Amino acid sequence: MSQTSSVVVSREGAVGIIELARPEKFNCLSLTVHAGIEEAMDAFEQADSGVRAILIRAQGKHFCTGADLDEVKALRADPARLQHFISYGHGVLKRLERSDLPVVAACQGLTLAGGSELMLACDVIFAAQDARFGDQHAQFGLIPGWGGSQRIPRIVGLRRGLDLFFSARWIDADTALQWGLVNYVVAPEALGGAALEYCTKLATRSRIGMATMKRLARQGMEGSAEVGLKLEEDLASTALLDDDVSEGLAAFEARRTPVFSCLLYTSDAADE
To answer: 37 Cβ partners below 8 Å, 6+ apart?
Structure first.
């Protein structure tokens, strides 16, 4: 386990865990927090790391209530440093979104503004029954800076997204589930265990297979269905020749659980 003042990084078997550790500031996002997330991703994505899935969770009552406004206020005096703050955060969240590893978030309490932007960059979301979600930027004359303006409407639809932006209202976990903003709603006391159990299950899957499906789904959303279908067609025949497919078919025929390769699948390999 490694720890900065803001992020705790650990492992549970093949699950890499990134834990926001600023409960006294409601886990607000700062340059230091983003650097801690990036450092963890550097370690987890190494070919020999043994990590097959990533869980992002948070200490304390709330998952994350946004950017560290004390840091934002200080940076407003220096536009170049302020731009770095925004751009660096964008880069880290894109890193989660584009990682070959599945990224799961477990959200309790409030997930607001920059916190929702962090959540939106993850692949699968667990929410505690008493969790609340929202975007408070408009309430204080701000706009989303880490992808919320693009990711929220793509997930919940334009009208719902604009309503969240304009009204700055919070929605409960059940509404977030209905809208597709989260995947699972569980009792607060079960949140950590349920999310970790899910990640542990993902860690038994074919890393190559999951990485390819994530790439297809996410890249497909960026363009037309026709482009996405062509990408799937191009990758499918190559993917079917992989050793993990041989293992999966053999396991199916033998009625046993497959044991897949631990090799890391990288984006570079997918492009070759």
So the answer is: 7, 18, 56, 92, 95, 96
Cβ(73)–Cβ(33) below 8 Å: no
Task: Report the distance separating Cα 245 and Cα 232, nearest Å.
Answer: 16
Any idea what the Cα angle at residue 122 is, between residues 211 and 60, rounded to 5°?
A: 135
| CATH superfamily to which 207-271 belongs | Lyase 2-enoyl-coa Hydratase, Chain  A, domain 2 (1.10.12.10)
Side chain identity, residue 62: H
Q: Strands of 132-134's sheet, edge to edge? A: 110-112, 132-134, 170-172
Q: Averaged in consecutive runs of 10 residues, what is the pLDDT profile of the chain (272 residues)? A: 82 97 97 97 93 97 96 95 96 96 98 97 98 95 94 96 96 98 98 98 88 87 77 73 69 76 47 39
Q: Which of 73, 84, 72, 131 is nearest to 106 (CA)?
A: 131
